[in-house]
């Protein structure tokens, strides 16, 4: 069978994957996963690169027509990268807001967030808590006032289905299906599955699958 | 809210998927000389006609719009290959033919902006539409296979996945939730049949 994947940016066979492509993968994975994934440190690098690039554009401003055209292309690319960056960070903020209470109580989640995100999460939680308290909870009976009880906390559902593509041959894998029954599936390169996020969580971390 | 509602629901918008596919590499033939261009994602060029060069799709389209290059269609985007794919698509009811993940987005971007570089572009448009229809029919049929364990959807494109995602995810989740309650239900049913069996044994 013919293989068209040589044109594929998601292919590992490409010797060098640029920061932009790496960030894009993180963005796609983040958008598709029900859980918060570890923060990609490339964000800061890319912000710096963007600044350098805009300085270069500025310094080339008054040169010939060719340079003007190249500047336009650079500018266009910068806008694209900024879009990915913004969307990546906003996707994460959306999840942080949703699971603020849960993150707050689980130190393991702190490792996945950047320093700024941790500050955001804590402040957001404080604000929401104090707002709820002031607006209604104060008048409720004391035993209903606790916001940190287990059933009050929204957790990421790891059983949610995700679509994923296998990036390398993994072979026979045991996944947990309904009612905890384990099922064996054969994961070969370029297979596409829809399954529970929980089942491929570790593979995603190792970069052996990607979400779609 | 950090993300607009419509994005939270269907995961990707079609324009976002097009955006993602615009990072695929494509071969172009530059029409005029240009120095190498250093972008954040890498350096492309120098552009020296008549040497072809690979660039990301978005760059190819921009250059094409400024009449600075002509685009060489990817090797699957021609009548013969697509006819074969269509045939395979029709013959094999259970599988999707091996078109690239972004075949739909790339072809629509190229047919939109560079149809003069693609021979027989009108016929290709029709073929692509046919293929898409057949594949769509198959995904609809594939709904029968949906269960709360897993389904395999090899060769399905990103746009196609995104199309079925809201419905498939919802169905998957509903089945999963029902099955979480089911063991209790099954247990009570099993004990019922058991009591019936034992009572029939008595007769």
From TrEMBL, chain A:
<dbReference type="Pfam" id="PF16922">
    <property type="entry name" value="SLD5_C"/>
</dbReference>
<comment type="similarity">
    <text>Belongs to the GINS4/SLD5 family.</text>
</comment>
<dbReference type="Pfam" id="PF05916">
    <property type="entry name" value="Sld5"/>
</dbReference>
<dbReference type="GO" id="GO:0000811">
    <property type="term" value="C:GINS complex"/>
</dbReference>
<dbReference type="GO" id="GO:0006261">
    <property type="term" value="P:DNA-templated DNA replication"/>
</dbReference>
<feature type="domain" description="GINS subunit">
    <location>
        <begin position="51"/>
        <end position="132"/>
    </location>
</feature>
<dbReference type="InterPro" id="IPR031633">
    <property type="entry name" value="SLD5_C"/>
</dbReference>
<dbReference type="InterPro" id="IPR036224">
    <property type="entry name" value="GINS_bundle-like_dom_sf"/>
</dbReference>
<feature type="domain" description="DNA replication complex GINS protein SLD5 C-terminal">
    <location>
        <begin position="156"/>
        <end position="212"/>
    </location>
</feature>
<dbReference type="InterPro" id="IPR021151">
    <property type="entry name" value="GINS_A"/>
</dbReference>
<comment type="function">
    <text>The GINS complex plays an essential role in the initiation of DNA replication.</text>
</comment>
<dbReference type="GO" id="GO:0000727">
    <property type="term" value="P:double-strand break repair via break-induced replication"/>
</dbReference>
<keyword id="KW-0539">Nucleus</keyword>
<keyword id="KW-0235">DNA replication</keyword>
<dbReference type="InterPro" id="IPR008591">
    <property type="entry name" value="GINS_Sld5"/>
</dbReference>
<protein>
    <recommendedName>
        <fullName>DNA replication complex GINS protein SLD5</fullName>
    </recommendedName>
</protein>
<dbReference type="InterPro" id="IPR038749">
    <property type="entry name" value="Sld5_GINS_A"/>
</dbReference>
UniProtKB/TrEMBL annotation, chain B:
<comment type="subunit">
    <text>Component of the GINS complex.</text>
</comment>
<dbReference type="InterPro" id="IPR056784">
    <property type="entry name" value="PSF2_N"/>
</dbReference>
<dbReference type="GO" id="GO:0007059">
    <property type="term" value="P:chromosome segregation"/>
</dbReference>
<feature type="domain" description="DNA replication complex GINS protein PSF2 N-terminal">
    <location>
        <begin position="13"/>
        <end position="72"/>
    </location>
</feature>
<dbReference type="Pfam" id="PF25005">
    <property type="entry name" value="PSF2_N"/>
</dbReference>
<dbReference type="GO" id="GO:0043596">
    <property type="term" value="C:nuclear replication fork"/>
</dbReference>
<dbReference type="GO" id="GO:0000727">
    <property type="term" value="P:double-strand break repair via break-induced replication"/>
</dbReference>
<dbReference type="InterPro" id="IPR036224">
    <property type="entry name" value="GINS_bundle-like_dom_sf"/>
</dbReference>
<dbReference type="GO" id="GO:0071162">
    <property type="term" value="C:CMG complex"/>
</dbReference>
<keyword id="KW-0159">Chromosome partition</keyword>
<keyword id="KW-0235">DNA replication</keyword>
<feature type="domain" description="GINS subunit">
    <location>
        <begin position="76"/>
        <end position="173"/>
    </location>
</feature>
<dbReference type="InterPro" id="IPR007257">
    <property type="entry name" value="GINS_Psf2"/>
</dbReference>
<dbReference type="InterPro" id="IPR021151">
    <property type="entry name" value="GINS_A"/>
</dbReference>
<dbReference type="GO" id="GO:0000785">
    <property type="term" value="C:chromatin"/>
</dbReference>
<comment type="similarity">
    <text>Belongs to the GINS2/PSF2 family.</text>
</comment>
<protein>
    <recommendedName>
        <fullName>DNA replication complex GINS protein PSF2</fullName>
    </recommendedName>
</protein>
<dbReference type="GO" id="GO:0033260">
    <property type="term" value="P:nuclear DNA replication"/>
</dbReference>
<keyword id="KW-0539">Nucleus</keyword>
<dbReference type="GO" id="GO:0000811">
    <property type="term" value="C:GINS complex"/>
</dbReference>
<dbReference type="Pfam" id="PF05916">
    <property type="entry name" value="Sld5"/>
</dbReference>
